[in-house]
Design a protein that fits this description.
Helix content: 25-40%
Bound molecules: NADP nicotinamide-adenine-dinucleotide phosphate
Order of helices and strands: EHEEHEHEHHEHEEHEHEHEEH
Shape: elongated
Strand content: 5-15%
Number of strands: 12
Radius of gyration: 22 Å
Largest sheet: 7 strands, parallel
Length: 318
Amino acid sequence: MNTIKSPVAIEINYDYSREAHFFADIINDREVIHLKTQSDADLSKVKYALVWKPDPILFSRMPDLEVLFSLGAGVDHVLTLPVAPDIPIVRFVDHNLTTRMSEWICLQCLMHLRQQRDYDARQKNHKWDELYQPVASDICVGIMGMGTLGQDAAGKLKTLGFEVAGWSRSRKQIEGITCYDGGELDNFLGKTDFLVGLLPLTDETTGIFNRQLFGKLQKNGKLGGPVFINAGRGGSQVEADIVDCLTEGTLKGASLDVFEKEPLSGDSALWDFDNVIITPHAAAVSSLDALARHVANQIERYEQGQELEYLVDRSRGY
Ligand SMILES: NC(=O)c1ccc[n+]([C@@H]2O[C@H](COP(=O)([O-])OP(=O)(O)OC[C@H]3O[C@@H](n4cnc5c(N)ncnc54)[C@H](OP(=O)(O)O)[C@@H]3O)[C@@H](O)[C@H]2O)c1
């Protein structure tokens, strides 16, 4: 018997027309409805939807929806909606995304370790001037959020020679990395020179990167002050505090990929610090072919009666 498979609805809030064929190619045995271009499509038989910051009205048009896929690793964009269906939410976990994030984190740690911004300024002024240079093992990188992304970055930073520490709600056991649990934050901060944020945005992590926390970081490190590197979520950082801490020297530098409000306002003071590196929420994009494979795999598992992977725990908020 030839059963008709439920369509997959996709709502992505940027123009992905050049890459849309991935979904048709990879999810090739069922209809793919692209909501951006097929806004009037009948969604009454849709069981699966892939979304990023969806319009909640969408859900009233999908009464048969069974599984919701997040286009990214984070799910705050769904969990903070006023109305969202009470169905499993699968977040995006993929080697491609994880690798991209580790590239960005390693790049930022090396930029600050090798004082690249200082050398850039010297180059601009045609100035031949060597700086005192610590080695990676002199620096402790402390990662807040030791999940999929934090653990991969930790391993790669370790390979580069950094001392690495990790902090997460539950303590991890990872060879060569000093791990702390949720109750040991101050001990973790006290030994951290480069603080890396890879936390999901939840009630508990909102505003966690603030003046009080920055004041607890290692002050006597070999680079003369701590550095803050955040690629988790902007809602976890207090930007006014970052500006103050950079101004008064509590922070020596920062690399920020995420912001309280995106895009970052043109008049934010953060743009103008010599030792602040800003990227536009681009540390780790979700590649559409990887996403299509991920959605296809999970639908196959689901329809074969296996458990879905990477399920969001609503009570934890991630
Ligand atoms: N900038 C970008 O381009 C980009 C791209 C992808 C993802 N992200 C962000 O990165 C975040 C992390 O992704 P992931 O895949 O690594 O997530 P994940 O696997 O769910 O890991 C989250 C980590 O944060 C820890 N955590 C959460 N709440 C905590 C709390 N209150 N106290 C202490 N630890 C807490 C968790 O602790 P346990 O291990 O104990 O649960 C876990 O180690 C995403 O949520 C997203 O916001 C950003």
